[in-house]
TrEMBL record:
It comes from Deinococcus indicus. Residues 34-261 form the Glycogen debranching enzyme bacterial and archaeal type N-terminal domain. PANTHER family: GLYCOGEN DEBRANCHING ENZYME. GO terms for molecular function: 4-alpha-glucanotransferase activity; amylo-alpha-1,6-glucosidase activity. It holds the Pfam family GDE_N. Residues 319-674 form the Glycogen debranching enzyme C-terminal domain. Residues 181-209, 688-707 are annotated as: Disordered. GO terms for biological process: glycogen catabolic process. This is Glycogen debranching protein.
């Protein structure tokens, strides 16, 4: 797969990447094209394809306590090329809207991503400079590799913009940093103090950034650091109504002199923490080759596992790797819900598990991920999110634990891991017991009909969970329709896992009673979105009925499935996902932007979300509508290359469909992969002679698991 460019960077043929995408010189300038690199600990490096910082989260962010307590250490390299008495800057910094300092964008010949490893190429006075960037796993380091091709001697001056702060804040004034030079290594120590790192102290225990230069065969002149303030503008923060300017400290650190013909250099910038300090990048080029090979193997394993051998699977499988990180407390694999600002969230992790791990052949990580959240259950509830400061978790979710049950059954169905099923079944049964007798936030099975009640004033519990300044925008208290589908699926999972283990299911009666009661949602020829405790229907047109019907135990009829499909198509379906509220509703908000209050007010009131689109695709496939299912994915498939490169955004504005929220979102990316594989397998099945009859209801679980 490739873009329109034919003049972009060219990589040596071996080892070959599984996924390639190129951008021409004009497209590569776009600061809205962002690339993400991660280190598996919750740390990351983020910038535009060309290397322009675009938000306060741009640069090198390192996790002090995986995967939380993340600090920003470094914003951008400073790069100056000298040739024949002329100098030109290769970096570009936006200092005001549309105003750039440095000529980096003008000099681009193109950019490319190879298994989502970015590189750019620039041309000046006959000299070509290629820059590649990567993060060695577990390192907390961003590595910048420079390849210089020139007919005459040239110099490359390298340095950077440094900060030391909590990743959510910016420096409103010049940061107090201490530079210590030592030949090919420079350390930058930040202060202890306020969250933005601008405290008065310069304690010896302050955060440390280490910059190291490698340039074999070249002459290196270590420059004495001369830090100078550099103001940077963050366009994405401006659009979000957040502080959009920062003062950083910039300094040139080394000048590298190359002979005629050119040479290579590597700048390694590392945030030192207890988790990363022991990791030293001694050979940056060997480390790059190792990382490129690892990514290529991830892509090919996913193609083999899913049975779909195309570049979209390869791309999304490499993207999936970014979200799987190791947690320190509780120890184990977890999922970063979205970059750059989310930590790990339970609901998101369980929804994304199938795409991130089961379809990509990462079964050990799936088991470990399930273990992390099974071990974190409290009164039958899984954490909604772990706190960013590492100090605990919030449990305000009614659906997170139910998605955990669904994910557990999918894992066992895919892997046949009955040992894990046997060890996990007691926790699943305890989870169900808590829901039957009642747990926090009013979550309990209704004695009258066996359906699941949830809700208390001031608390948000479903995936439509935004709360801002004490305002729960979409409370949905009572019996949300998708929660009932999940409740049935969790009860059904216990029955099927018990059968597989030769044990007696313990909740057959509860499952039967809830199934008998579910038709109460069908009122007036459509499904209600929520029933109140007294049975009053909320007839808001939202994607939640589709979510419920795509689950394995939800009772429905072909006619009802067709009605939901028509409703989604006529009111919710867009090229990139489903509206969270019908545009025909008076409460609909088509603009997602502005301040946090403005954004949150629209978050689930019309804003488009990609991940529920997969449920709609499942309903189409259940009715044999393979071509319509493929068409529903077309826009989202193209979006993979136009915002968070290789990933899928969190949301889109309801009217303009402009990407918003996190440009890299776990469940969006994972569910596109699942939907694409579902449709691809259905297409392959349809192409075979005498295909089996298509079921008239929701897809059976074995088909949903996509193995």
């Amino acid at each position: 797969m490739s873009g329109s460019s034919t003049s972009g960077p060219v990589r040596p043929a071996a080892p070959g990447p599984a996924s390639v995408y190129t951008y021409g010189p004009l497209a590569a300038r776009d600061p809205d094209l962002e690339v993400l690199l991660t280190d598996g600990l919750g740390g990351f490096a983020l910038s535009s394809v060309a290397g322009v910082p675009t938000r306060c989260y741009s640069g090198l962010v390192v996790s002090a306590q995986p995967p939380v307590r993340r600090r920003t250490h470094f914003i951008s390299p400073l790069e100056t090329l000298g040739v024949a008495g002329r100098e030109v800057t290769l970096h570009a910094l936006e200092i005001a809207p549309g105003v750039f300092e440095g000529r980096g964008l003008e000099l681009l010949t193109g950019a490319a991503v190879w298994d989502l490893l970015p590189e750019r190429e620039q041309l000046f006075a006959g000299v070509r400079v290629r820059r590649r960037v990567f993060m060695p796993p577990g390192s907390g380091a961003a590595v910048f590799l420079y390849d210089v091709q020139s007919r005459e001697p040239v110099t490359l001056r390298l340095g950077g913009l440094f900060v030391s702060r909590d990743m959510h804040h910016v420096h409103a004034r010049v940061p107090e940093l201490q530079f210590s030079a030592g030949g090919r290594e420079v350390t930058v120590r930040g202060p202890d103090g306020s969250p933005d790192g601008s405290g008065d102290g310069r304690a010896e225990g302050g955060p440390v950034t280490r910059a190291t230069l490698h340039a074999p065969g070249a002459v290196i002149d270590a420059l004495s650091p001369q830090p100078h303030p550099q103001r940077v503008y963050y366009r994405h923060d401006a659009a979000r109504g957040e502080p959009d300017h920062e003062v950083t400290l910039g300094s040139d650190l080394w000048e590298v002199s190359f002979p005629a013909g050119g040479g290579r250099a590597a700048l390694v910038v590392q945030g030192l923490t207890p988790a990363t300090a022991a990791h030293t990048v001694t050979d940056p080029w060997a480390a790059y080759a190792q990382e490129a090979a690892r990514r290529s193997e991830l892509a090919r394993r996913a193609q083999d596992t899913s049975g779909v051998r195309d570049e979209l699977v390869a791309t999304l499988a490499v993207a999936a790797d970014a979200y799987l990180v190791r947690r320190e407390r509780p120890a184990g694999v977890t999922v970063i819900a979205g970059y750059p600002w989310f930590a790990d969230w339970g609901r998101d992790s369980m929804i994304a598990l199938t795409g991130l791990t089961l379809l990509t052949g990462r079964h050990a990580e799936a088991r470990d991920l399930l273990g992390t959240f099974l071990a974190s259950l409290r009164r039958g509830l899984t954490p909604n999110n772990f706190h960013d400061d590492g100090g605990g978790a919030g449990f305000n979710t009614v659906d997170g634990a139910l998605w955990l049950a669904v994910a557990l059954e999918r894992y066992v169905s895919v892997t046949g891991d009955l040992s894990f099923a046997r060890s996990s079944l007691p926790a699943l049964r305890e989870l169900l017991d808590w829901h039957l007798r009642g747990t926090d936030h009013g979550i309990r099975a209704d004695d009258r009909d066996g359906l699941l009640l949830a809700g208390e004033p001031g608390v948000q519990l479903t995936w439509m969970d935004v709360k801002v300044e004490g305002w729960v925008v979409t409370p949905r208290h009572g019996k949300p329709v998708e929660v009932q589908g999940l409740w049935l699926a969790a009860l059904g999972a216990e029955a099927r896992l018990s059968d597989a283990l030769g044990e007696r299911p313990q909740y057959v009666g509860a499952l039967a009673r809830a199934r008998e009661s579910f038709p109460a949602f069908w009122q007036g020829g459509a499904y209600a979105d929520t029933l109140s405790a007294d049975g009053t229907p909320d007839r808001s047109v939202r994607p939640n009925a589709a979510l419920a019907l795509a689950l394995p135990d939800t009772p429905t009829t072909p006619a009802q499935v067709d009605r939901v499909i028509r409703e989604v198509e006529s009111q919710l379906l867009t090229p990139v996902g489903l509206h969270t509220l019908s545009p025909l509703d008076d409460r609909y908000r088509g603009n997602y932007g502005g301040t946090q209050v403005q954004r949150d007010a629209a978050y689930h009131q019309g804003t488009v979300w990609p991940w529920p689109l997969t449920a709609f695709v499942e309903l189409l496939l259940s009715r044999g509508e393979v071509r319509r299912a493929r068409a529903a994915l077309a826009g989202l498939t193209g979006h993979v290359w136009e915002a968070g490169v290789g990933h899928v955004s969190e949301v889109f504005a309801g009217d303009s469909l402009r990407p918003g929220g996190c440009p890299f979102q776990a469940w969006s990316t994972a569910e596109l992969l699942r939907a694409h594989v579902l449709v691809s397998l259905a297409e392959a099945q349809a192409a075979r002679p005498a295909p089996a009859p298509t079921p008239a209801g929701p897809l059976p679980l074995s088909t949903q698991n996509l193995t």
